[in-house]
């Protein structure tokens, strides 16, 4: 593997997908799927569980450090949030008033802990971020990836440089341009089941309700260690703009909603050919395709790399 190729992020796919990606060669696009419709939705659930292992003790410890007036203020905010969200509240309004009037720090801490668990239980079971995603990988010429994400008769992997930026235009309720919004590309971690995740930045220690989005994003970047060989980088496109703001280029297949994320053609640096199927046929097909697309003239035949994995079908 060359030093240059080590810096690429790969997307394992099919030749048919490549033609779709470059349907508009000047502004090629890749589809990001809403996380509720991922092939395995348990991935997000696993990430949430790992995040909560860190956050619940963190929140409880922080509540203990607050003075009584701030404990009361925190409890009242948690009560209002549960009521607003339609959750089964820990307290009635009379019980809340009684607890806050008592000014008993131990009682307040206990009730705050119950509300924290209630809110995170809601996050675990009923809440999903308004996010769209797809995967890239640092694993070059990976037999696992070829078998999992490419068609049996062959496939390709698109190699992008690491500073690739994916974006889409957002529009308001009138269809007018709102802003150009960029996706994040983040490295996925694979903590062992018994391993505590590393603490991550929390935007506001005084009010954890404000950083739920940070929690959700972190959950998308944690996977079971059995998948570590994927060496995944996840493209995450958040749509937390309210109901009136939508992606201009969005749509549905028969089984999932998606958003099209654009990138510059020059970001595509190499194309790898699967060890499965007729490699020479796929290589020639790619050469013809590249020659037919003016925006891909920065690629040469040497940028089409044949897998050297000995594969028996």
Explained architecture:
This protein has about 325 residues and is α+β, with helices and mostly antiparallel strands. It has 2 domains: about 5-40 and about 130-305, no CATH class; about 55-125. The protein has helices spanning about 15-20, 40-65, 70-85, 95-100, 105-125, 145-150, 210-220, 280-290, and strands at about 10-15, 30-35, 130-135, 155-160, 165-170, 175-180, 185, 230-240, 245, 250, 255-260, 270-275, 305. It has a 6-stranded antiparallel sheet, with no helix packed on it. Strands 1-4-12-13 form a 4-stranded mixed sheet. A 3-stranded antiparallel sheet has the order 6-5-9, with no helix packed on it. Helix 2 (about 40-65) packs antiparallel against helix 5 (about 105-125). The protein is elongated. Mean pLDDT is about 85; it is low at about 1-5 and about 205-210.
Short structural description:
It contains eight helices and 13 strands. It is α+β, with helices and mostly antiparallel strands. A six-stranded antiparallel β-sheet has the order 7-8-3-2-11-10, with no helix packed on it.
How many helical elements?
8
> Termini distance?
25 Å
Uncertain stretches of 5 or more adjacent residues: 1-5, 203-210
- Total domain units: 2
Percent in strands: 15-25%
Helix content: 25-40%
Strand order across the largest sheet: 7-8-3-2-11-10
**Residue-averaged pLDDT, rounded?**
85
Instruction: Choose one word for the global shape.
Output: elongated
Major sheet details = 6 strands, antiparallel
Classification by helices and strands: alpha+beta
Spell the H/E element sequence: EHEHHHHEHEEEEHEEEEEHE
Please state the CA-atom Rg, rounded to the nearest Å: 24 Å
């Amino acid at each position: 593997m060359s030093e240059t190729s080590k810096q690429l992020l790969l997307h394992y796919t099919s030749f048919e997908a490549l033609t779709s990606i470059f349907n508009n060669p000047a502004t090629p696009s890749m589809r990001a799927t809403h996380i509720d419709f991922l092939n395995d939705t348990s991935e997000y659930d696993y990430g949430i569980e790992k995040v909560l292992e860190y956050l619940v003790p963190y929140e409880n410890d922080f509540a203990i450090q607050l003075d009584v007036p701030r404990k009361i203020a925190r409890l009242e905010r948690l009560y209002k949030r549960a009521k607003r969200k339609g959750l089964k509240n820990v307290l009635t309004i009379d019980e809340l008033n009684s607890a806050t009037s008592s000014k008993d720090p131990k009682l307040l801490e206990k009730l705050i802990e119950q509300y924290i668990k209630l809110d995170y239980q809601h996050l675990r079971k009923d809440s999903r971020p308004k996010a769209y995603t797809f995967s890239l990988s640092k694993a070059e010429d990976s037999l696992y990836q070829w078998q999992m994400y490419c068609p049996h008769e062959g496939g390709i992997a698109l190699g992008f440089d690491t500073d690739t930026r994916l974006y889409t235009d957002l529009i308001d309720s009138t269809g007018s341009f709102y802003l150009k919004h960029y996706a994040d590309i983040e490295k996925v971690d694979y903590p062992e089941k018994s391993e505590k995740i590393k603490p991550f930045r929390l935007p506001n220690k005084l009010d954890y309700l404000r950083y739920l989005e940070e929690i959700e994003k972190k959950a998308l970047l944690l996977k079971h260690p059995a998948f570590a060989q994927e060496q995944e980088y996840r493209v995450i496109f958040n749509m937390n703009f309210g109901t009136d703001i939508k992606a201009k280029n969005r749509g549905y297949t028969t089984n999932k909603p998606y958003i099209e994320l654009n990138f510059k053609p020059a970001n595509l640096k190499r194309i790898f050919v699967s060890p499965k199927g007729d490699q020479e046929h796929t290589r020639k097909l790619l050469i013809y395709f590249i020659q037919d697309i003016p925006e891909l003239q920065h690629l040469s035949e040497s940028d089409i790399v044949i897998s050297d994995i000995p594969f028996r079908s």
